[in-house]
TrEMBL record:
Encoding gene (name): LOC105050858
Pfam families recorded: MIF (PF01187)
Compartments, record wording: Secreted
Main location class: secreted
Domain of life per record: Eukaryota
Organism the protein comes from: Elaeis guineensis var. tenera
Family according to the record: Belongs to the MIF family.
TM ranges: none
GO MF terms held by the record: cytokine activity; dopachrome isomerase activity; phenylpyruvate tautomerase activity
Annotated Gene Ontology cellular component terms: extracellular space
Reaction catalysis annotation: L-dopachrome = 5,6-dihydroxyindole-2-carboxylate; 3-phenylpyruvate = enol-phenylpyruvate
Taxonomic lineage of the native organism: Eukaryota, Viridiplantae, Streptophyta, Embryophyta, Tracheophyta
Keywords attached to this entry: Cytokine, Isomerase, Secreted
Protein's name according to its UniProt entry: L-dopachrome isomerase
Length: 115
């Protein structure tokens, strides 16, 4: 149920995307405290984006989860994801925004129903 959606202006090839998906899945599961089997990650590379008027490498992410989020978790997750993006895509941590959504079970659908 934790879901991470990433968008970046950096083109992402299949090998790098696979590494990012694996690394982000592990980070999200560990930091939020949910099994990896519940975690979904998407990455959309090569998106036209600017940050502070510059088209240098940048990224935006959204984390949606039923519970598990809060100030200390969000800070740890933001740092871990920024490190992955810096290592894999050369996106400086100062050019990465992330938004966290802690949603109620009835607002998250799965398997033709809600949690």
């Amino acid at each position: 149920m934790p879901t991470l959606n990433l968008s970046t202006n950096v083109p992402v090839d299949a090998v790098v995307a696979s590494d990012i998906l694996k690394d982000c899945t592990k980070a999200v599961a560990k930091i939020i405290g949910k099994p990896e089997s519940y975690v979904m990650i998407s990455i959309n590379g090569g998106v036209p984006m600017a940050f502070a008027g510059s088209e240098e490498p940048t990224a935006y992410g959204e984390v949606i989860s039923i519970g598990g989020l809060g100030p200390s978790v969000n800070g740890k997750l933001s740092a871990a994801l920024a490190e992955i993006l810096e290592t894999k895509l050369s996106v400086d941590s100062s050019r990465f925004y992330i938004k966290f959504y802690d949603v109620q079970r009835s607002y998250f659908g799965f398997n033709g129903s809600t949690f």
